[in-house]
Design goal:
The protein starts with a strand and ends with a strand. The protein has 2 domains: 267 residues, 3-Layer(aba) Sandwich (D-Maltodextrin-Binding Protein, domain 2), CATH 3.40.190.10; 98 residues, D-Maltodextrin-Binding Protein, domain 2, CATH 3.40.190. Helix 1 packs across helix 9. The chain is 33% helix and 16% strand. The N terminus is likely disordered. The protein is an alpha/beta fold and 377 residues long. The strands form 3 sheets. A 7-stranded mixed beta sheet has the order 3-4-5-2-6-13-7, sandwiched between helices. Strand 4 and strand 5 form a beta hairpin. The longest helix is centred in the last third of the chain and has 24 residues.
C-alpha cells in the first residue's frame, strides 16, 4: 500500500479553529464572551465510551494539552480556546458503572454529546433515542487477533476453520454478525475477555481475542511481558460489518434546542480530529498524563500513542467519508448497517422500531463539507 502523508486541507477560518482546539497554559478561562457563549451550554460535556485513548483523542484535543484531570469523576476539562465555554470530557467503561452511553445520557441531562456506535444507536432507539451529528472515525478499529505461529488466517472464512476460542466482551453485536455469516462458529465464542493480555499469554496464543488495530498489535509486540512478538489480525470491517464506531450523538428530542450550538460546534469537532492527526504529540502527552493520574486503565505509552495515529491513518480509521469531508455519515452505509443489525437484535428478542432509516439516527446537517484530510505527494 502506498503511504500518503495526510495533512489538513487548506481551510478558511482554520486559525480561529486551531486556537479553539489547541489549548495551552496561556489560554484564558471562559469570560462569557466568545463565538459559543450563550449559544452552547456553558460547559459542553462529552461522554466517551472508554478510557482516554488515541481513538477518542478528538475530544481531548478540544480541551488542549493543559486540561484539568478529575480522578474521582474520571474527567478531563478546560476552556475550549477563546470560544467562551468549557469542555468536560468524561471517561466511559468502568466510570459508567456498566451502563451503556445511551442510557447514561438519559440518566444525566448534563451530557451534551455521547460517543455511540451506530449499531448501538439502533439498539437504543426505542428507549434512548439519539441522533449522531459527527463521525470522528470512519472505519471501525475493532479486530480479532491471533498468534500467526499457531494459526494461519488469510480471510474471515479461515477464522471459523481454525476452531480457536475467541475471547470477547459480552454483548458485542459484531460478534453476532460474524456468527450469523459463518465467519465464527458459535462454539468458538468465549465472552470472558477482561481487556488484558493475560489469557492470551497464558494460553501461548492458542486463543484469539478482540482488540483495536490501533492499540493491541503494537502493545502486544512491544510491551506485553511474556509475549513481545507480532500478532495477526483481521478488521471486523473487512467482514462487511459497516457500523460507524463513534457517532458523536445528542438526545434526539434536544436536537432543535441544540441546533444553533451544533451549527458552530460540529465544524470545530471536525477540525479537532484534523488537528490531532496532523500534530498529535501535545494531546498524546495529555492522554499519557490522564492515564498516569487515573489508575486501572489500559497501559498507555508514548511510543504506542505515536504508532496508534500512524495506524489510524494508514488503515483509514480516521479518514474522509465517501467524499473529501471528514466526519460526515454516508446515509447508504448507515441504511446497510441498520439492515445488518435489526435481524441480530430481533434474534436477541429486543424491540426495534419498524422502517428505521439513516435519517432516524444520524444527520450531516451541521458538517462543514470543506473540512477534510487530503493526501500530500
Amino acid at each position: 500500500m502506498k503511504k500518503h502523508v495526510l495533512a489538513a486541507a487548506a481551510l478558511a477560518g482554520s486559525v480561529l479553529l486551531t486556537t479553539a482546539c489547541g489549548g495551552g497554559s496561556s489560554t484564558p478561562k471562559p469570560t462569557g464572551q466568545g463565538v459559543l457563549a450563550g449559544v452552547c451550554p456553558s460547559t459542553i460535556v462529552i461522554q466517551t465510551d472508554w478510557y482516554a485513548t488515541p481513538e477518542r483523542a478528538a475530544a481531548y484535543q478540544l480541551v488542549g494539552p493543559n486540561g484539568t484531570v478529575d480522578v474521582k469523576k474520571g474527567a478531563y476539562s478546560g476552556p475550549l480556546g477563546d470560544t467562551g465555554v468549557n469542555v468536560e470530557v468524561r471517561l466511559g467503561g468502568p466510570f459508567l458503572g456498566g451502563q451503556p452511553v445511551p442510557a447514561q445520557m438519559y440518566q444525566d441531562n448534563s451530557i451534551t454529546l455521547g460517543l455511540v456506535p451506530t449499531d448501538e444507536q439502533v439498539q437504543a432507539k426505542t428507549k434512548f433515542p439519539l441522533t449522531g451529528v459527527f463521525a470522528s472515525l470512519d472505519i471501525n478499529p475493532q479486530i480479532v487477533m491471533w498468534d500467526p505461529a499457531t494459526y494461519t488466517v488469510n480471510s474471515w472464512k479461515d477464522v471459523a476453520a481454525t476452531g480457536a476460542p475467541i475471547l470477547y466482551s459480552e454483548g458485542k453485536l459484531y460478534m453476532d454478525y460474524l456468527v450469523a455469516n459463518g465467519y465464527v462458529k458459535k462454539e468458538q465464542l468465549d465472552a470472558s475477555y477482561d481487556g488484558t493480555p493475560s489469557r492470551f499469554v497464558a494460553e501461548h496464543g492458542r486463543v484469539m481475542q478482540q482488540g483495536y488495530v490501533s492499540n493491541e498489535p503494537y502493545r502486544w509486540e512491544h510491551d506485553v511481558k511474556g509475549w513481545q512478538k507480532p500478532t495477526g489480525h483481521l478488521l471486523v470491517a473487512q467482514s462487511g460489518y459497516e457500523s460507524y464506531p463513534h457517532a458523536w450523538s445528542v438526545r434526539t428530542g434536544e436536537l432543535d434546542k441544540l441546533r444553533p450550538c451544533l451549527q458552530k460546534l460540529v465544524p470545530m469537532l471536525q477540525q479537532s480530529e484534523i488537528d490531532y492527526v496532523t500534530n498529535p504529540e501535545p494531546t498524546n502527552q495529555a492522554l499519557l498524563r490522564i492515564s498516569q493520574t487515573i489508575p486501572d486503565g489500559p497501559p498507555i505509552s508514548a511510543a504506542g500513542n505515536t504508532d496508534s495515529v500512524k495506524v489510524q491513518l494508514a488503515e483509514k480509521i480516521v479518514g474522509n467519508g465517501p467524499d473529501n469531508t471528514l466526519g460526515n455519515f454516508d446515509p447508504a452505509r448507515v441504511d446497510r448497517s441498520i439492515a445488518q443489525v435489526i435481524p441480530l437484535l430481533k434474534a436477541r428478542g429486543q424491540q426495534v422500531p419498524d422502517n428505521l432509516k439513516a435519517s432516524d439516527i444520524v444527520t450531516n446537517e451541521f458538517i462543514d463539507p470543506a473540512k477534510g484530510l487530503k493526501p500530500q505527494g
